[in-house]
Amino acid sequence: MKIRPTLILALVAALAACSNDAPPADSAAIPAAPDELVPVAAPAADPIDAILAGSHRSDANKARDQYRHPKETLAFFGIQPNMTVIEITPGGGAWYTEILAPYLHDAGSEVAAIWDTGASDAPGYYAKNNEQLATKLASDPAAYDRVALRSFDAKAPAFGEANSADAVVTFRNVHNWTMAGNDGDYFKAVFDVLKPGGVLGVVEHRANAGTSLEATKETGYLTEDYVIGLATAAGFILEEKSEINANANDSKDHPQGVWTLPPSFALKDKDREKYAAIGESDRMTLRFRKPSESADGDASDDTAAQPAAGD
Predict the structure, then answer these.
(1) What is the pLDDT of residues 66-87, one digit of tens each?
(2) 180-234 per-position pLDDT tens digit
(3) Of 169, 181, 284, nearest to 224 (Cα)?
(4) How far apart are CA 199 and CA 184, in angstroms?
(5) What does the pLDDT average to over 112-134?
(6) Which of 147, 311, 174 shows the shortest CA–CA distance to 230?
(7) Per residue in 6-20, pLDDT tens?
(8) pLDDT grade, residue 119 (50/70/90)?
(9) In which element (H, E) is residue 200 found?
(10) CA-to-CA distance for 197 and 187, rounded, in angstroms?
(11) How far apart are the C-alpha atoms of 221 and 260, rounded to whole Å?
């Protein structure tokens, strides 16, 4: 049989077309090389988290974080690791000291302002608290060896050299100053020790608005307006309020005032479950600023919102 030339040409064209078709399925499945991946740095860990979980803290203290919100509270106050921070009367339990001391250990410093027990009429609990605090600090030198203890006269408080601290913090202390009758002296002493632009952080048991001072004196609760008035009278600017430590379950009408609630449980086992369910007190959280000084020495609030730089 004779093959026509046109048929040969058609076969050649068909074979050429097959050679240009898509590659076999197995080769088509090979993925294209991806673009070069750029590694993303993990977010830096917050040192406060490690401190809160640290073995130097007891389980009982850790259990109270849910009421005291230490990480959020210190962030609200603007506390930075390179600051000089004065904590007023941390008490024998040193609850906040066990967080502040390691946080400030390397780049900053903590001063624990404690009562001077030298006066003959100093209450016995002054010495007891100071001894407990000293024992606490000695228990873990790695965490507490740089805490400076600074005693002050409770009747005429002074917390150190003028304009020397970046921040002062006080936790549930103002009602004690009010009961002693010299709360204004404390706020003035805090104002004096702070650098211009320095911060005062206050956490205090909060009475219902409009409650009279006389009605609050024996309960441990104070109104926000009263505390703000003390601070502004000393020269501070109220910078911001926070509801970090609020507790809407606290009715504030307990038989033994704030001490009815945990952790004090003043009624011992009576209605203990009821008060445990309420939790710790409703608290105000306030941030005040000492005005910065302008070049001519006058106070200026232009930079009051700027955090104080550490030493």
Answers:
(1) 999 999 999 999 999 999 999 9
(2) 999 999 999 999 999 999 999 999 999 999 999 999 989 999 999 999 999 999 9
(3) 284
(4) 17
(5) 92
(6) 174
(7) 444 444 444 444 445
(8) confident
(9) strand 194-205
(10) 16
(11) 12
In whole angstroms, what separates CA 14 from the centre of its chain? 80
Contact between 169 and 99 under an 8 Å Cβ cutoff? The reply is no
Q: Which residues contact 64 (CB under 8 A, 6 or more apart)?
A: 95, 263, 280
Q: What angle do CA 246, 226, 229 make, to 5 degrees?
A: 115
Query: Other C-beta atoms within 10 Å of 210: how many?
Result: 8
CB burial of residue 182 (10 Å; 0-12, 13-18, 19+): middle
Q: Which two tokens stand for residue 170?
A: 């006080």
Q: Could you give the CA distance from residue 307 to residue 79 in angstroms, rounded to a whole number? A: 9
- Residue 47 CA to residue 143 CA, distance in Å, equals 13
CB contact at 8 A, 278 and 106 = no
Residue type, 33: A
Q: Beta 299-300 vs 292-293: how paired, if at all?
A: antiparallel
Segments making up each domain of the chain, as ranges: 47-295
Residue 202's DSSP bridge partners are 170, 286
DSSP-based three-state secondary structure for 67: helix
Comparing CA positions, the residue from 75, 28, 70, 77 lying closest to residue 53 is: 70
CA distance 99 to 65: 11
Distances (CA, A) of 155 to 117, 182, 212: 12, 7, 24
**Between these two residues, 5 and 155, which has the higher pLDDT value?**
155
CATH topology of domain 47-295: Rossmann fold (3.40.50)
For residue 133 the two structure tokens come to: 């605090």
Residue 224 and residue 202 in contact, taking contact as beta carbons nearer than 8 Å: no
DSSP H or E stretch at residue 87: strand 84-88
The token pair that represents 143 in the structure block: 């965490």
Mean pLDDT of the chain: 87
3-state secondary structure of 83: coil
pTM of the model: 0.82
- Mean pLDDT calculated for residue range 27-55: 73
